[in-house]
């Protein structure tokens, strides 16, 4: 899935690999806002891993449930369904974190994610510790997130710098708020992260239409190169109607090949549309 930036005071997508991107309902937000429960469903027409598809074109569906406390702490759970995986339900992600403002412009967030795979391969990187910083200046935000992924004796790293914008319109007929959040981000890191890798023979069978599904299990790539893995442009449009928020995002991903990567990882520019639907309700008043 696509890499998006995070802007202070905005609920915007921030991915932590592997392999599903964190739903944007799980993004950091500062303390002082009302405690809130968010139920969300995301759908992406293409499932990408730092812009790579590993030879299999598939869609991804991510349901999630999140509780944001007014203190800035949050806890959530999300799941990952892939259209070409067998079984289709791939993983469960449990997340804990805390976010707040330093001054009035700088947002920070620390987080921990634990992944439970439905069919685990060897040396799965099932833990992620994350740190995010984002500085808000007017309608733009400049930020970066760092993720340290570990497990099974292996480690991986991700650095995602981003530039994002924000524009909103209120009270447009039955729409309470309409907003756009364009962003440009880069993914820099090591390639030895747990991805939903498909065995070469299975990939060829899928391409030859001999089978509709893959026997997929996450495994660890043994390439330790560190470098620029790709660029992503995202153009989300969202509408809030009462407790309901609807969103559609155009994504353009350009993966960059690391020195020892195999061409079958899937390079070349890719574009797709993703959709989101969320329902949220406050469980406390702001600042109470």
Short description:
With 288 residues, the protein is an all-beta fold.
Salient structural properties:
288 residues; twelve-stranded antiparallel beta barrel; single chain; 16 strands; two-stranded antiparallel ribbon; globular; mainly beta
Note down, in words, how this protein is organized.
The chain is globular, with a radius of gyration of 18 Å. It has one helix at residues 200-207; strands spanning 36-44, 60-68, 73-82, 89-102, 106-117, 127-137, 140-151, 154-165, 167-172, 175-180, 183-190, 194-195, 219-220, 226-241, 244-255, 270-282. A hairpin with a 2-residue loop joins β9 (167-172) and β10 (175-180). The protein is mostly beta strands. The strands form two sheets. A twelve-stranded antiparallel β-barrel has the order 1-2-3-4-5-6-7-8-11-14-15-16. A two-stranded antiparallel sheet has the order 12-13.
